[in-house]
Amino acid sequence: VLQRLSDPALPVQIEASKALRFLIESDGAEQTLLPVLPQLLTEYFRIMNEIGNDEVVAALQVIIDQFGDHIEPHAVALVTQLSNAFDQYCNAGEDEDDDDAAMAAAQCLECIATVLKGICEKPELFKNLEPQLIPLVMKILGNDGDYIEYLECALDILTFLTYFPPELTPELWNAFPLIYIAFDQWAYDYLNLMVPPIQSFIAKDPLVFLQGKCDIPEGSQVPYIDLVFSIVAKTVTNDRASESECRQALSLFLSVLHSCPGQVDSYVPMINEISLGKLGQQVNAELPLTRIAVYQVIGSALYYNPALELQELEKRGVTQQVFTKWMKDAETMDKWLARKMTILGLSSILTLQMGTLPQSIVAFIPQLIAGIVSMSIALKEDEEKGRTGGDENAKSEKQQIVEDEEEAAEGFGEDEDVTNELDEAYKKALNGVSGWDEDMAKFLIGEFGDDDDDFDDDFSSPLDAIDEMIFLSDTLRTAFAREPDAYNQIQQAMPPDAVQKVQKIFAACDALRAQQAQAAAARAAQQS
Question: Which residues have CB under 8 Å from 332's CB, separation 6+?
Fold first, then answer.
């Protein structure tokens, strides 16, 4: 087959290149092909230059995927060749109405994504690929939908370019307004693929995001942040938007609130107007998924500025209704993000002086503390369960993006060490609250049986670094020290088991900090 790639007859070359994809997984194939990988790629490039055949490109993609660990030295050449081939096939498909060429063009984009997947652990390489990829993405996004058949692949490529590199170039930021224009004018149904790169733009460089402006077709200059709020508003208020799309859109508010601390006060009223409006529509819905997405926004706003957020709730006269429904729905939460933002958001209320709180909240404090303490313990137990292989779907966000539509990652191997001293500190201190080794949740993190279309496992932000249990512990201790009389009354109003859980959390966090101090001292001793 390798010899036939160089056969004088082009049809033979094509058939040989197509056949190789079916042989590559056979025994001995890797040992045979790896030494001649550079020549093999050269032959495929030559064949692709002569004819646009999607099966040839698909075979090349199989080779790249199979030899992903060895693709790095060839990444620039591969992407350059594939980008040029895309332009060639794309133009042929458009000018000559050549369906085969159009399919080959789409296959080139998928092949580029496979290359990017293979080098995701080498983010410094992405900058070398931008001169080929940014014009390609801009072409697809910026031509009024003329290339909409390639949009899905282009957004996948843009997600790689914005997520993995440590910083974003000005050239890459040029794609940001094009995402909005595409959404607004011709690609509304692609929102779920647009959200990940938008989130990366916000998280990677919030200063550029907050200061940036662009011209839109209506002729005015609009701040980047206003484009994001327009996307959310148009999605959440659109009757034809699915609830999944609404939840994805609402997650953009989380990105803004988490990445721009203290800088978006003027947008908090609009966040509440949109989010609470959606909560009102969903208040009696059987599935709580969209309500929980709204609670994540409210929790983020409370963490961002608890006084301002409570003011917005009070202004609308919905404080008690929102918190009552929130605590009820919290009993069904099993995703990490919803629980984390519930704990961080509701804990943030305790940072305020008791005299500044609305009366409806003051009466709610004992129930609130009891609820978030129980949730914090359960979340920590589920995290421990995942670390010990109990949750075979638990994976990092980078793995999730790289794997895309692949099956969930397998659990830890039997010979792997999946515990550490810091984890054991929690386990030991929390022993007795409930059975640590028991099955603590009916569903694993990231699964919502009837409507498993949400993307919490993909979401990342600066708040990932905050341990919600430590935050809760520190907030409670500060509150008790600040207003001992008030919090003694609150403690008396709490159930005894809730008070006991508070003490267990204090002990767990003390144990964790002691272990962290010991580990830091050990590292310092080694370095010296």
Answer: 288
Listed as own residue / partner, the contacts of 35-41 with beta carbons closer than 8 Å and 24 or more positions apart are: 36/2, 37/63, 37/67, 37/70, 37/74, 38/74, 40/2, 40/5, 41/74, 41/77, 41/78
Both structure tokens of 124: 């410094």
Prediction pTM value: 0.82
Position 441 pLDDT exceeds 90 = no
User: Which structure tokens are listed for 179?
Assistant: 């995402």
pLDDT of residue 409: 35
Token digits for 370? 């009891």
Query: Can you state the percent helix, strand and coil of the chain, rounding each to 5?
Result: 75, 0, 25
pLDDT tens digits, 20-65: 667 676 676 677 777 777 777 777 777 776 665 677 777 778 778 8
The structure tokens listed for 453 are 């279309």
Kindly give the pairing relationship between strand 221-223 and strand 213-215: antiparallel
**What b-and-e string marks burial along 313-351, b requiring 16 or more CB atoms within 10 Å of the CB?**
beebebbbbbbebbbebbeebbbbbbbbbbbbbbbbbbe
> Who contacts 474 (Cβ-Cβ below 8 Å, separation ≥6)?
509
Model pLDDT for residues 194-253, shown as the tens digit of each residue: 999 999 999 999 999 999 999 887 768 999 999 999 999 999 999 899 999 999 999 999
Mean pLDDT confidence for 98-118 = 86
Whether 103 has a pLDDT exceeding 60, the answer reads: yes
In the structure encoding, which two tokens stand for residue 485, read together?
Answer: 């009389």
Cα separation of 137 and 113, whole Å? 12
Residues 6+ apart with CB under 8 A from 514: 425
- pLDDT of 98: 66
* Segment holding 213, helix H or strand E: strand 213-215
β-bridge mates for residue 250, sequence order: none
| SS3 assignment, position 239 | coil
Using CA atoms, how far apart are residues 480 and 365, in angstroms rounded to an integer?
A: 13
Mean pLDDT of the chain: 83
Cβ–Cβ < 8 Å for 179, 198: yes
Cβ 65 vs Cβ 114: under 8 Å:
yes
DSSP state letters, 335-350 = SHHHHHHHHHHHHHHT
Residue type, 463: L
DSSP bridge partners of 221: 215
CA distances from 59 to 24, 90, 190, 345 (A): 10, 19, 28, 50
Contact 257, 304 (CB under 8 A): yes
- Between CA 50 and CA 477 the distance in angstroms is 72
> How far apart are the two ends of the chain, measured CA to CA in Å?
59
